[in-house]
Amino acid sequence: MPIKTGRLRKFLYDVMKNKLLLLMLVPAVVYVVIFSYIPMSGIIMAFKKFNYTDGIFGSPWNGLDNFRFLYISGKLWTLTRNTMLYNIAFIMVGLVLQVGFAVIINELRLRRFKRVMQSFMFLPYFISWVVVVTVVRVVFGYENGVLTQLLDAAGLARLNIYVDPRPWPFLLVLMNAWKSTGYGMIVYLAAVSGIDPGMYEAAEIDGANIWTRTFRITIPSLLPTIIIMVLLAVGQIFRGDFGMFYQLIGNNGVLLEVGDIIDLYVYRSMASSSNIGMASATGLYQSVLCFITITATNWLVKRFEPDYSLF
Amino acid sequence: MFARKIALKNLICLGMALLLSIGLFAGCGNNGGSSDPTSSKPAASTASPSSQSELGAPANDPDNPWSHIDLSEPETINFYVIGSLGTDWERITGLANEKMQEKINTTVNFVYVPWSDFQTKYALFLAGDESVDMIYAAPWCNYQEHLKANAFTPLDWDFISTYMPLTAEGQASESWKEVTYDGKIYGIPRDDALIVADIAVTTRDLMDKYGWKESDINGWDDLNQYLFDIAAGESGTGVYGINAQSGWPSDIYWFRYANRIFDIDDGSATWMTWRYDTGKSFDVNDMIWFAETPEYLEFALLMAEFNKSGVFPADVMSNQTMIDDSYLEGRSAINFASVENANKLISEMESRGKEIVFLDGVFTEEHRSRRGPYMMYAACFPTASKKTERAAVALDCMKFDKEVNRLLLGGIEGEHYTLDETANIRDLGPNAAAYPWAGWCFLLQHDADPALKLQPDLQATQDRIMDSLVSPDVFPINGFAYDNSKFEAEIAVLSALVNEYRFSFCFGIFQDNTEAKYHQFISECKAAGLDAIVADYREQLQAFIKD
Amino acid sequence: MKCKKGLTNDVLIFNSVGFLLVLIFGLMCAIPFYLIFISSFASEGSLIRNGFRFIPDEFSLEGYQWVFRNPMRVLYAYRNTICVTVVGTACSIFLCTVTGYVLSRKDFPWRNGFSLFFFFTTLFNGGLVPWYILCTRYLGFKNSYIALILPLMFSVWNMVIAKNYMKSIPFDIAESAKVDGANDLLIYFKLILPLCKPLIATLGLFSALAYWNDWYNSMLFITDSDKQSLQYFLHEMLSTVQALKQLASAGNQEAITNAVIPQDSMRMAMTCVTIGPIIFLYPLIQKYFVKGLTIGAVKG
What is the pLDDT of residues B54-108, one digit of tens each? Predict the structure, then answer.
């Protein structure tokens, strides 16, 4: 009895002590409850046979039927693995490039050059994938592409990337990096600009050269940000970038050997049907996998550095 | 925000991208000549118009066919439409509404939904929007699935003869079968059956360059040789400048047309086909899944040849230019066009100083077209709406009231179109671009509508097409709807497989590996349950035909 | 701040290598954009005949003419997008930083719980249908600007970034202020926020971009063409053109009676039209990404 009262007392005491902080949280909490938690009830549609008169809550249950199309194809493991591997590659390559460029740009002395190049690096973010397809055609086109001209000049055999699946894993990583480095770099730029210059001065006085300064001061200071960004990305690791994959690989049977992901498969199977239950089922499948992954990863991070974890 | 946005984006991209590959279902009716649909009595089904009930005989007042309905309350109906509006759209619909206000005390609020959004928002309209009183339905919008999910209000003949007297009389009687499911009518189809028939065209300068004449081309083999000749002679690729985003993929022409293979097109995307031979009638046992036909492998190998010899452009999978544009700009040696599109191509080519050549010989005596479904578009009434009766009256007025119908279809005579009453031919008016004929109201069309005036060369082709129509008696599948509830998951897997391989076969991307890939494709489909689906389909089709 | 000191060898090497890497990547990003830019001024015919070239054969303003065919609508679209972006970004910055601040406070006992509470929403979602029903039927979003502003106002991603950034601000500041009698809200506004200039710049940029690029909410909720966002307006125009061309192949009338619509150059023109304004925002933000902007102030 006394323990319970004690706990309750402590809880109320904490609430009173932090009442202003709690109040500051209220707008966001209300927002999230309305716009995210209430619609989340729609997840039950993954287990129902939806019809319009009964709606979400009245439609009859149909167990795991909506999930069947995922596993009877026998491809589910390949698709899941592809989705995950591509995302891991995107995260890792993206991380190296974004942090690398943020650090370099921060250290570069030429101000105007820095500014101009930063703006350039930002441009690909605005180019939609549909237009990127055109750019890819110009660069890698079999007949007049830049690559072809280079190969011809070097006397090598031409390469038609649309009938050859081998270069595509690299191409996809390259294009993802190209498009998102400028945007992803911004967070690291902001973080780097928050590092105390005093530390650098002290290190210089102690005789550290720039490489030491970078790897002993800059990177460790960026570590919390890096971990958070990686965790955020891991939280979406089983969701593919549909826009990119559809535009670049689409319905090309040759390329689908190496580039087929869950989202593309679902698109192909539902192309002629509008089964809301099946769409929900896929979303749920991906969500559960993401949830398991991020919980495990977050727990791992917590064990080593509780301060850097996501939750 | 991220996860929701991405998951939602999936559905969006689904809708958008799907629209880009509208494929077979985008055809909006060639008003072929003025032949009436056959006036055969429909098969006896419970919703057959021939079994009119005693009550609800429509009023005999010719000036006001709706006099027996209580129209004292003014109402506004929300009609969700798609299409391409002209700049005069608001003016014309305003005029139409004035007339409808007079006649039936109703205003129709036409809510325009852009093409790009329609498929995505379709389910949303039905699920979330109570204000939708009437909406377009079509096979490519999963009409079948929606009706089985109780999206549309079922009607019976009483309802139709009471609230839609003009339609009950005027609508082609065999069209009702196509919107009947389980004894109930779920929508009002348009009064005009689709005919799909194309012509092959090329350019005079290319023919001259390679020493060919129209008379040399008498069939698909000759056409293929012509293409190979050009490919060998020209540097670069892309004799037939098609690509995965534009026009119809090559299996329509080299697989279906060339081999007289008809789709059993019931909107369920199960790709069942039947090969037509002269004098033969349809038998369910002759029904075969498209890729299991021996012709399909031949077709795939031919396409691989096309790809290797440069008939297809090297960037066939990534180019986005439309085939018509490629053809007009000289980047494609041949093109296939519907009769009406060909009409336009003639003038476009002239303005570029080139001469168009019709390769009528490709489509020989044996080539057949068929009068397709009426259920290309229908107007359906969502179950959530409370104004279904009034909406039905409004639709009746829009479809069969001469004034309102003509106004909505074509705009103002003399301004947007010109009409030759006696010959029942229409032509473009001085301001045609502001309000194109049937730009958005395809479901208000009739078979008896005036046909577009064709250039003289084309008229002969048009006549040839009409003569070659395969009668629905020979191929009686119009109105069949396959019930896929037992095999939903299997069909989804099959769908994924077909979409994975289809374009690759169509454009020969597998090149030397085609045959191996073909066998792989077939075995994967069989593993997904193809045989069971085919057997089930045959059963259902047999039952349908027996009725 | 150009310091002549410290120009040692290692710095020189670092700068040269860095310069080269940045230059290469920057050009890799800029050159395709140049291609897009110059192609928007190419005639459709030359694009079809000769593909995309670095110096087009034929110049023409066709693409832009089609985009600006109805100038009033373009103007309205710009107006809508700019207003929504400005208002939305302001609200978003406030909401995300406040929440991030609370969750960054080490002395807030439930910070991990709330973090999970927020983060969970990025993992699971019920799909489009329930959200649409909620917004239109119960919240009355139909055809209003609220529908464009609210959905993007709070982003968990931005909030996590804010929380992470604020963690790096030493806690002593807050504590000493508390000793002086300030409450949490005051601390937030007067002390913490001024120290977060790079953060605000970052969140501002991200929010502004999200609003600027948003066509999805316009598609779902806006039926009035005067209230559409810029991206949606362009996106609709392009897909209408594409659909028209598909239909033309199949015999549809409008498609046939209309002139040949320049699809490729129009797409390029549209890309330029949307990038145009927002790319000028970026240089404004850059000045906040300067070394030592915040900590210097802290020391002072």
Answer: 333 444 556 788 888 888 888 899 998 887 777 888 899 999 999 999 999 999 9
Q: What are the backbone angles phi and psi of residue B78, rounded to the nearest 5°?
A: -95, 115
What residue ranges of chain A have pLDDT lower than 50?
none
Helices C230-250 and C263-279 sit at what angle, rounded to 10 degrees? 170
Closest chain C CA to residue B110: C223
How many CB pairs (< 8 A) connect B and C?
A: 171
Look at residue B74 and tell me if it is in a domain. Answer: yes
Q: Using a CB–CB cutoff of 8 Å, tell me whether C73 touches chain B.
A: no
CA distance B178 to B544: 12
Check whether residue B309 and residue B330 sit in a common domain: yes
- Where is pLDDT greater, at B464 or B499? B499
* Residue in B129, B343, B438 nearest the CB of C136: B129
User: Which residues of chain C are within 8 Å of residue B350 when distances are taken between CB atoms?
Assistant: none
Residue A131 and residue A175: Cα distance in Å, rounded? 13
Query: In this structure, is the dihedral angle defined by the CA atoms of residues C197, C203, C205 and C208, taken in order, positive or negative?
Result: negative
Domain-terminating residue out of B312, B343, B370:
B370
pTM of the model: 0.88
Is B139 within the bounds of a domain?
yes
Kindly identify which residue of chain B lies nearest to residue C43, measuring between CA atoms.
Answer: B329
Chain B residue numbers with beta carbons less than 8 Å from the beta carbon of A283 are 7
**Is residue B213 located within the same domain as residue B238?**
yes
User: A34 vs B128, which has greater pLDDT?
Assistant: A34
Residue A63 CB burial class (10 angstroms; 0-12, 13-18, ≥19) = exposed
Residues B153 and B102 in one domain: yes
pLDDT one-digit tens code per residue, B149-191: 889 999 999 999 999 999 998 898 888 888 888 889 999 998 8
Cβ–Cβ contact C240 with B under 8 A: yes
Counting residues of chain C whose pLDDT is more than 70, the rounded percentage is: 88
Q: Which residues contact B547 (CB under 8 A, 6 or more apart)?
A: B43, B45
Q: What does each C-alpha distance from B298 to A184, B222, B253 come to in angstroms?
A: 50, 16, 13
Mutate to test the interface with B, among A52, A164, A247 (most CBs of B within 10 A): A52
Please answer yes or no on whether C264 and B320 come within 8 Å at the CB atom. yes
Chain B residues whose beta carbon lies within 8 Å of the beta carbon of residue A159: none
The confidence score (pLDDT) of residue A244 equals: 95
Q: Which residues of chain C neighbour B4 with C-beta distances below 8 Å?
A: 121-122, 125, 131
User: What's the mean pLDDT in B387-407?
Assistant: 92
- Residue bearing tokens 């050549």: B357
- Contact of A120 with chain C, judged by CB distance below 8 Å, is answered with yes
What percent of chain C is predicted at pLDDT more than 90? 41
Domain boundaries, chain A: 1-63, 65-308
SS percent in chain A: helix, strand, coil, step 5: 75, 0, 25
What domains can you pick out in chain C, each with its CATH number?
Answer: 70-261 (1.10.3720.10)
The alpha carbon of residue B365 is apart from the nearest alpha carbon of chain A, in Å, by 34
CA separation for the pair B215, B228 (Å, rounded) = 18
Q: Which residues of B touch A69 (CB under 8 A)?
A: 488-490, 492-493
Residue-number span of the structural domain to which B337 is assigned: 198-254+294-370
- State the pLDDT confidence band at C5, using cuts at 50, 70 and 90: low
* Cross-chain residue pair C15–A109, CB shorter than 8 Å: yes
Task: Work out the minimum CA distance from B49 to partner chain C, whole angstroms.
Answer: 31
User: Does residue B386 register a pLDDT over 80?
Assistant: yes
Q: Among B428, B444, B460, which residue terminates a domain?
A: B444
CB contact under 8 A, B13 and A269: no
Distance of alpha carbon C137 from alpha carbon C135, whole angstroms: 6
- CATH T-level topology, domain A65-308: MetI-like fold (1.10.3720)
Q: What is the pLDDT of residue B30?
A: 33
Could you tell me if B305 and B226 lie in one domain?
A: yes
Q: Which chains touch B (3 or more CB pairs under 8 A)?
A: A, C
Count how many domains chain B has: 2
